[in-house]
Design goal:
It contains five helices and eleven strands; from the N terminus they run αββββββββααβααββ. The longest helix is centred in the middle third of the chain and has 37 residues, at 136-172. It is of the alpha+beta class.
């Protein structure tokens, strides 16, 4: 009987030791991470890279940052054990670190005006806590740079526009005084013969309709030339002809 009780006790102890040593192996799980962390001026966090942790990789997240007055706090803490982890954190331009607490080891460098924190560790929880401030002058300087660029581009546009109009005027060449539109009218002398210009000027001076005979007498122009040029002016839409009895009245066409 005593032998059977001893045998039972030995079996129970063996089962206990097996369960005791196997339980941590079965229940525990180690994670790994190789990530890049970026934070923008508004505290939005992107965590990209490779990790088998279910909640570590995120984009456009505000879960890890908190702002109080001018101080920002970034807290990325995972209590689970990571067999290996490595990270690179890039803070916004113009940031100044007030306090930092991390697991593993870390190094701080500056790249292109931004602070970059890199770190790594083994067989421990992942913890990255950084308190920082963003220099207001850096943001203002950036805004000023954008305004300055806009003003320079606007000035360049105005200069190019001015050069374009100058070149257009040079192409057109100087306009003779007699080709310009007369004041108070929309009649242009451009493309008219000398006799046609004389007829138009006469009609503008008298400011009334004239017969072809009156035009002939006033300008001392042959009858056939008057008739021919008056009809040419009619075709060009400058004058209009009205037959009254045996005579033709010629007047400037109203705009």
């Amino acid at each position: 009987m005593k032998g059977k009780n001893l045998q039972k006790k030995v079996i129970i102890l063996l089962v206990f030791f097996i369960l005791f040593y196997s339980f941590p192996i079965v229940s525990s799980q180690d994670y790994y991470a190789d990530i890049q962390i970026t934070v923008d001026n508004s505290g939005v966090v992107d965590i990209l890279g490779v990790s088998d942790h279910p909640d570590l990789i995120v984009e456009n997240s505000n879960l890890y940052t908190y702002k109080k007055q001018s101080y920002w706090l970034l807290n990325i803490t995972k209590d689970e054990t990571f067999s290996d982890y490595i990270y690179v954190l890039t803070l916004p331009e113009g940031s100044k670190i007030n306090h930092i607490k991390t697991s593993g080891f870390n190094a701080i460098e500056e790249e292109s005006g931004k602070l970059v924190i890199s770190g790594a560790g083994q067989d421990e929880a992942l913890s990255l806590v950084v308190q920082y401030q963003i220099n207001p002058s850096s943001t203002a300087s950036s805004s000023f740079d954008y305004i300055l660029i806009f003003l320079v581009l606007f000035i360049i546009f105005l200069v190019l526009l001015l050069v374009y109009f100058v070149l257009q005027n040079k192409k057109e060449g100087p306009v003779k005084a007699e080709e310009k539109v007369e004041a108070g009218s929309e009649i242009s002398f451009k493309g008219l013969t000398d006799r046609q210009k004389d007829i138009v000027k006469l009609l503008m001076e008298v400011n009334r309709a004239l017969t072809q005979v009156e035009i002939q007498n006033e300008l001392d122009m042959p009858k056939a030339a008057v008739s021919r040029n008056v009809h040419s002016l009619e075709l060009k839409g400058i004058v209009e002809i009205e037959q009254v009895g045996m005579s033709n009245l010629v007047r400037l066409k109203k705009p």
